[in-house]
Design a protein that fits this description.
The protein is of the alpha/beta class. The protein has helices spanning 12-20, 38-47, 57-69, 92-105, and strands spanning 2-5, 24-26, 51-54, 77-79, 113-115.
Length: 120
């Protein structure tokens, strides 16, 4: 997958794991968007054909719904939900595996909003 990682997901260890798994990964630092507002991150992902990976479920769900409501299109959002319980929160290796599972399922990603926790 061609991924754009939101600020909250662009930690070095995850970036390395995703690249090692064969994904193209762009971070906000690569795009000179570190600290930008969520719509700016989403716009960059859409304009560059990248699927957005974020831990900011609620804000990007609203952006996804806005695009759907206006009959627009986007490249897809995949999000990781955290419950503030380290035992249940996804680790980097689990995120990479969930992306692989989603990819192998053949489920559409463009114009969709996937919660990776469901793909473990």
């Amino acid at each position: 997958m061609n991924l754009y990682l939101d600020d909250d997901s662009a930690k070095g260890a995850l970036v390395l794991r995703l690249r090692k798994a064969g994904h193209q990964v762009v971070t906000p630092a690569d795009a000179t968007l570190s600290g930008a507002a969520d719509p700016s991150h989403f716009l960059h992902a859409v304009q560059n054909g990248l699927i957005l990976l974020t831990r900011n479920h609620d804000d990007f769900k609203v952006l996804h719904l806005l695009i759907q409501a206006t009959q627009g299109r986007h490249t897809g959002v995949i999000t990781v939900r955290y419950d503030n319980d380290p035992k249940r929160d996804m680790k980097d290796v689990e995120i990479v595996r969930a992306i692989r599972n989603l990819e192998q399922s053949g489920s559409p990603v463009a114009n969709e909003f996937h919660i990776l926790n469901h793909w473990q």
